[in-house]
Amino acid sequence: MQLEKVFEEAFNFHGHKCWASAVGVRAGLKALKVLGVERAKNADDLHCIIEIGDNHGAQCFADGVQFTTGCTLGKFSIEKTGWGKLAFTLIDKKNQKSVRVSYKPTRHKQIAQSAFMTKKSQGMKPSEIPEDDVFDMLRIIIDAPDDDILTVSKVEERPWEEFGEIMGLHPCDICGELVAAPYLRVVGEKHVCIPCSGYEI
User: Which pTM does this prediction carry?
Assistant: First the structure.
C-alpha cells in the first residue's frame, strides 16, 4: 500500500488528522520494517508495549501504532505503561525479537509553532481546523526522513511465553451478561460478574 494511502486510512481509523497519529504511523511502519515482519493478523504474531499515559495530547500516537502494526486491544496484543512517552517496543513473538522506537523531537518546535497547534491551543478541535493548516502541519512529519524523527534501538532477543486464549463465557447469575470465566466471582451460591459481586477486582 502506498504511504499516502496508509496515512489516509490511519487518519480515518483515528477520526482526525494530527501530528501524533502521523508519528505513530511512521514509527509503526519503521518497527515492522526493522523486525522484517508484516502487520499482525493474529494475536500470536506481535505484541506492543506502548509508553503513552492518560489524558495527554499525544495519546493519538497510539492509534497510528495500532493501525500500522495490527496490535490491538481486542487481540490483547497491546499494553500501556502509563509513562506519558511517545515510544513503544514491538515484539515479534514467533522469532522472539524486539525493537523499541521513540519519537525524536527534532522537528517538534515547528509543530508547536504551526497554525494547526496555535488553533488547537485556542480550543479548536482538530476536525474543525482548516485543511491547509492541517496539511502544513502533517508535512512536517510525513516528509521527514526516518532518522530525523525516530530513534530506533537495535533488535534484541526477547523471550516470549504465550499462555494461549482462555475460552469460555458464562452468564452472570445476577445481570445475565456474558462474562469470561476467569472474571466470574462467587457470591454465596451464585457466579457473578465483578460489578455485580461488589468486589473491586
Answer: 0.85
